[in-house]
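Retro notes (design track)

What went well: tokenization of the new backbones is finally stable.
What didn't: we kept losing track of which sequence belonged to which structure.
Fix going forward: every design gets posted as structure first, then sequence, in one message. First example under the new rule, 551 residues:
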């Protein structure tokens, strides 16, 4: 494991057999999502972040033979001016407002089978203690100091804008002229005040080295804007706000006239979930998943804070793009925000999970369209996967309800072109899917899986089992075909567990695959590498996924 040492503002890399102070070696998986801001209810963009992290966590668990501990954290960011304003608009106290919206995000995790191990709220005592401790650490190290700050401030983004932002005039809803950022379109105001400051500049070379040498920001295209920010932006960060302007937040220790900046507060959640600072804690995170709109905070501010505290940086920051709706940017003003609960009610959890993970591409914006969702899940979950299961487990073609034994004589029955191609496809599939999942390109792994399933369906069409069963339900070619197709389904069922866990559990239950045999290491040997015994199928439905009917 690498140890990061800060020397004269530069980052030096040394190979060590231990982690930084207070940490022991252990094999672990530590995945985080951003904590979601409680100024509004969840939409599919939030759900997509959760699904990426959940698929990654489930995949790690499939390969967990050498992992001793896992953390998968998500939660809600509950401080700041926008929360203060939103609660006033809703005629609620800030705490009442936070409780209501946070519960909606918590329910989102539950309803969509998100396997998070922790749900952190920034209003929790454990988090306030972690932030207070971290602040004191940076004060004692001389990295936080009092200073005057002025500039254009965006309430919506809760941050001062960099000097590179162009400010333009626009007619507001009340017909008065307002100042907005040409980059974000958000209203800004000029603010001059005395705050606590943190300088990123002493760590800018170290952050640059980290990006260039470690390649932690994925996909690669997102590293370029980070390097540009380090060159162009002001590297003096205001890390507090006057409590007269921002009262809903964590007070600066020893100075109640100031409130800790919401982004410093929020970023510390990743430490809070480890037990920091009270106990030995896992660090650093394996993967931190963020949307591209908050990349700057995670790839510039966060590394600077960690360097200042003497802590290791995340191994990977996975940045994903946004979702449009019918090729239009999602926004409340347009009225096209997609509610994930509505989708769940209409199409079910598996359909929504599958669509977002198969259509979402981290390096570019995804486009949500309900007709496209229906077409995709009908074609792939119902027709390609579901139909294959019903064919080989239905009572007409499989009256004995068995997974037939695959033995030496089976090979003589599987010499057709599609039988050979199917076996070759299965043998190469594991490596292709593993490579895709490791890089969080789940859409690519799904493409490889569907390609193999289409070959399996062609193999069934070629074999014509409906004709073979007329002669004998124990026809050798019929049994060999059934066994190979069931092996295909077993492999696919395990590979798709991170994507559609409920549907794949149903599939593996039907095939009577022991729960102890549903791990990555159980994918091989294939049945043609080690002969299987005849298995009696579980008495469950062969209908895996019902087609969605258009209304």
């Amino acid at each position: 494991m690498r140890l990061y040492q800060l020397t004269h503002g530069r980052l030096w890399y040394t190979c060590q057999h231990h982690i930084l102070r207070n940490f022991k070696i252990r094999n672990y998986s530590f995945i985080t999502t951003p904590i979601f801001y409680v100024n509004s209810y969840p939409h599919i963009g939030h759900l997509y972040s959760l699904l990426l992290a959940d698929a990654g966590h489930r995949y790690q668990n499939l390969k967990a033979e050498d992992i001793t501990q896992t953390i998968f954290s998500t939660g809600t960011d509950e401080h700041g001016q926008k929360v203060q304003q939103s609660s006033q608009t809703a005629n609620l106290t800030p705490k009442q407002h936070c409780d209501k919206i946070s519960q909606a995000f918590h329910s989102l995790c539950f309803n969509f089978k998100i396997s998070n191990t922790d749900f952190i709220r920034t209003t929790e005592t454990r988090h306030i203690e972690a932030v207070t401790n971290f602040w004191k650490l940076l004060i004692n190290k001389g990295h936080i100091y009092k200073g005057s700050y002025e500039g254009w401030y965006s309430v919506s983004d809760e941050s001062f804008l960099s000097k590179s932002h162009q400010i333009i005039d626009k007619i507001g809803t009340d017909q008065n002229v307002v100042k907005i950022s040409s980059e974000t379109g958000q209203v800004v105001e000029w603010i001059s005040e005395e705050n606590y400051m943190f300088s990123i500049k002493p760590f800018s070379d170290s952050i640059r080295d980290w990006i260039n040498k470690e390649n932690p920001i994925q996909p690669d295209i997102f590293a370029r804007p980070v390097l540009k920010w380090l060159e162009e932006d002001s590297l003096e960060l205001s890390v507090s706000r006057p409590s007269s302007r921002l009262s809903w937040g964590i007070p600066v220790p020893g100075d109640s006239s100031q409130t800790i900046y919401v982004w410093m507060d929020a970023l510390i959640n990743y430490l809070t979930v480890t037990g920091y600072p009270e106990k030995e804690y896992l660090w650093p995170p394996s993967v931190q998943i963020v949307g591209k709109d908050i990349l700057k905070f995670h790839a510039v501010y966060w590394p600077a804070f960690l360097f200042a505290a003497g802590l290791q940086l995340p191994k990977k920051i996975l940045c994903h793009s946004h979702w449009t709706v019918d090729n239009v940017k999602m926004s409340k003003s347009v009225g096209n925000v997609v509610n994930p609960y509505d989708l769940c009610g209409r199409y079910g959890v598996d359909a929504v999970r599958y669509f977002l993970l198969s259509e979402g591409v981290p390096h570019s914006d995804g486009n949500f369209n309900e007709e496209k969702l229906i077409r995709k899940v009908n074609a792939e979950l119902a027709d390609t996967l579901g139909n294959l299961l019903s064919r080989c487990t239905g009572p007409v073609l499989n009256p004995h309800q068995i997974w037939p034994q695959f033995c030496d004589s089976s090979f003589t029955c599987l010499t057709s072109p599609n039988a050979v191609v199917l076996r070759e496809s299965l043998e190469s599939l594991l490596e292709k899917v593993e490579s895709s999942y490791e890089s969080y390109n789940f859409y690519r792994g799904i493409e490889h899986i569907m390609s193999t399933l289409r070959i399996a369906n062609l193999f069934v069409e070629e074999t014509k089992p409906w004709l073979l069963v007329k002669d004998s339900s124990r026809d050798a070619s019929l049994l060999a075909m059934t066994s190979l197709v069931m092996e295909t389904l077993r492999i696919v069922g395990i590979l798709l567990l991170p994507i559609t866990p409920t549907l794949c559990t149903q599939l593996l239950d039907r095939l009577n695959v022991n729960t102890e045999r549903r791990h990555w290491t159980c994918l091989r040997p294939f049945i043609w590498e080690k002969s299987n015994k005849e298995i009696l199928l579980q008495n469950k439905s062969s209908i895996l996924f019902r087609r969605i009917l258009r209304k």
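Added context from the reviewer: Residues 1-25 have pLDDT under 50 and may be disordered.
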